[in-house]
């Protein structure tokens, strides 16, 4: 292995760990604005420069896993799309590994489906009313799983499509791909050999948000193959977003792992770096330094009595104050600043999608996919249902026909009615479209009403999870029935009651088109002027409480116990959110805190060292 000449600092250090003859594994701490992607690309380019011939001769590649398609595209672009590097999202990467293991996948699914059916049988047997909505939904779920279990024997090859909304025979879901891979990696020496022989170097970006069971399987694979396999993890536990990651990643690594640091923040001005270092002081105490020549920057805290003001008026006033303080007229132009709400529930209420979002956000198994768009049902609602509804509203006949042809079986050789009389089938489809147009053109109907009509008219394939919930004519579920429903089903039933406009606003929000920055949407991004808004009254705070973080509300016994046991808590989650948002600012930052106890917030802000007296304004 040639000695690298072009790398310096931590980049040189990391390249040294990726020695094909003496591999080492590492977790790189890369705080906000530290140039993590730059380091990743620099190291990969050096590998290409010095190890290309050997890797090609051995039929090997370097694996690079990123969290989003956008990140994949950016890294591939910087590497000139060199096929030496297999850059992909986690799901695509692991599916490429496991898809030849048909019998193993079949065995995993058989075990999982059998357990699910047994659980549903128990629920159905305990039903007080077998004709009740809950019992009927469970019967439909069981039927779907029994059918899938029975059809496993016919599957000769499994498929996975991250963009498909339709579950067909032989398909595996987003969630199943991760679970199956973790199980097979832990149990199959053959799969471990395939991974380590094909990819002697595997680098994982945003490792703090990689699913816990899969991360543990990768780490175990490395420990069993440490003489020929380097596993490199890039990330920052302070910036983790999703609940399914490995929270103890740093503390649970094997003793022989390396832990390099990137401590320079190339994004933020000096004062913002000082602030985010103070925030981290109460967590992992890691610190960053400003780059050479970094500007001073401006930080202000505006504390507002939440019982006495109107939000829009006071926030406009704050922009005017920031303009004067920073001598920057762009603070007066809303489109020149980035208002970050810090918490999704707060954005949901302000953005009018709370009736759809909040019920689903209470369910652990839905929360992550609600924000990253990986859930099949959510993809169907946003990528199939909404485009069809919008096309029907504006009478775009071409779009209507294209969507129905793509996402339903109406215009298909598999539809007997269409084959026998295509003209009549198309006329009936037009009548169905007209029925939908009546309710969506002038009204804001409940999502359930639209879904039932779409289902009855067979205009779209509806995912099983939603299909089984459309049983019965009533949108309401009584208390007795809810006792027997899963939390997930209860949440969907409540979300179904939301007006369809709330689903539309949710779709805009996750696509960064609603004017509110999402937590995962802004991580890695930067803005010259940031207004960070904290408002527990609007946040529904079951996961985050800014009043607790800022000392205006006492910690509960559960909070105290979680802290003492090192568990993730409302305080640690809120602190991470606060850190991520503040660390987006390139020039100036306004923190806006709505509170019922302004003096307590001021006292905590001063005692913690977050803000100085002359940086705090009571409003």
From TrEMBL:
Name the InterPro entries on file: DNA_helicase_UvrD/REP, P-loop_NTPase, UvrD-like_ATP-bd
The GO terms describing molecular function are:
helicase activity
Keyword Nucleotide-binding among record annotations? yes
What the entry lists under SUPFAM superfamilies is as follows:
P-loop containing nucleoside triphosphate hydrolases
Record-annotated UvrD-like helicase ATP-binding domain positions: 9-282
Keywords attached to this Swiss-Prot or TrEMBL record, sorted alphabetically, are: ATP-binding, Helicase, Hydrolase, Nucleotide-binding
Pfam families registered for this protein in UniProt: UvrD-helicase
Q: Which residues bind ATP?
A: 30-37
UniProt-recorded name of the protein: DNA 3'-5' helicase II
The species this protein was found in? Aliivibrio sifiae
């Amino acid at each position: 292995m040639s000695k690298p000449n072009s790398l310096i600092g931590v980049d040189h250090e990391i390249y040294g760990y990726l020695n094909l003859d003496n591999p080492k594994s590492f977790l790189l701490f890369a705080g906000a604005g530290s140039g993590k992607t730059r380091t990743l690309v620099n190291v990969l380019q050096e590998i290409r420069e010095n190890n290309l011939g050997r890797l090609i001769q051995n039929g090997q590649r370097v694996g690079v896993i990123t969290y989003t398609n956008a990140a994949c595209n950016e890294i591939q672009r910087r590497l000139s799309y060199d096929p030496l590097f297999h850059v992909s999202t986690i799901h695509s990467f692991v599916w490429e590994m496991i898809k030849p293991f048909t019998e193993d996948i079949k065995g995993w699914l058989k075990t999982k489906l059998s357990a699910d059916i047994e659980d549903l049988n128990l629920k159905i047997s305990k039903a007080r009313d077998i004709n009740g909505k809950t019992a009927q939904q469970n019967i439909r779920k069981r039927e779907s799983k029994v059918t899938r279990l029975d059809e496993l024997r016919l599957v000769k090859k499994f498929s996975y499509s991250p963009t498909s909304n339709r579950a067909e025979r032989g398909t595996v879901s987003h969630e199943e791909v991760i679970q199956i891979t973790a199980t097979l990696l832990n149990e199959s020496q053959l799969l471990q050999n395939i991974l380590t022989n094909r990819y002697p170097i595997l680098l994982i970006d945003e490792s703090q948000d990689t699913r816990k069971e899969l991360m543990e399987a990768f780490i175990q694979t490395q420990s069993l193959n440490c003489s020929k396999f380097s596993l490199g993890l890039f990330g920052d536990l302070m910036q983790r977003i999703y609940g399914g990651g490995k929270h103890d990643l740093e503390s649970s690594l094997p003793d022989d792992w390396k832990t390099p640091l990137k401590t320079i923040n190339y994004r933020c001005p000096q004062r913002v770096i000082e602030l985010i270092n103070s925030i981290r002081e109460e967590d992992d105490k890691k610190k960053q330094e400003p780059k050479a020549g970094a500007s001073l920057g401006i930080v202000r805290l505006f504390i507002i009595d939440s019982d006495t003001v109107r939000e829009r008026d006071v926030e406009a006033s704050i922009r005017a104050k920031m303009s004067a303080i920073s001598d920057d007229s762009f603070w007066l132009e809303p489109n020149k600043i980035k208002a970050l709400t810090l918490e999704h529930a707060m954005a949901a209420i302000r953005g009018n999608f709370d009736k759809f979002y909040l019920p689903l956000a209470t369910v652990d198994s839905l929360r992550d996919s609600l924000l990253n768009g990986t859930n099949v049902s959510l993809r169907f609602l946003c990528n199939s249902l909404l485009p069809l509804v919008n096309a029907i509203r504006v009478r775009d006949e071409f779009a209507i026909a294209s969507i129905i042809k793509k996402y339903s079986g109406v215009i298909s050789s598999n539809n007997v009615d269409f084959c026998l009389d295509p003209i009549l089938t198309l006329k009936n489809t037009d009548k169905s479209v007209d029925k939908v147009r009546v309710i969506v053109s002038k009204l804001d109907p409940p999502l359930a009403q639209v879904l039932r009509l779409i289902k009855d008219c067979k205009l779209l394939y509806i995912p099983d999870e939603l299909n089984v919930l459309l049983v019965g004519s009533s949108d309401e579920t009584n208390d007795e029935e809810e006792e027997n429903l899963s939390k997930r089903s209860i949440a969907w039933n409540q979300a179904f009651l939301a007006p369809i406009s709330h689903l539309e606003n949710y779709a805009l929000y996750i696509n960064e088109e609603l004017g509110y920055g999402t937590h995962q949407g802004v991580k890695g991004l930067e803005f010259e002027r940031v207004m960070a808004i904290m408002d527990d009254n609007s946040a529904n705070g079951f996961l985050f409480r800014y009043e607790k973080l800022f000392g205006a509300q006492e910690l509960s016994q559960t909070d105290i116990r979680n802290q003492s046991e090192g568990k993730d808590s409302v305080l640690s989650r809120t602190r991470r959110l606060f850190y991520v948002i503040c660390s987006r600012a390139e020039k100036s930052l306004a923190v806006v805190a709505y509170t019922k106890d302004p003096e307590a917030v001021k006292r905590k802000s001063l005692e913690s060292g977050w803000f100085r007296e002359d940086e705090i304004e009571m409003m």
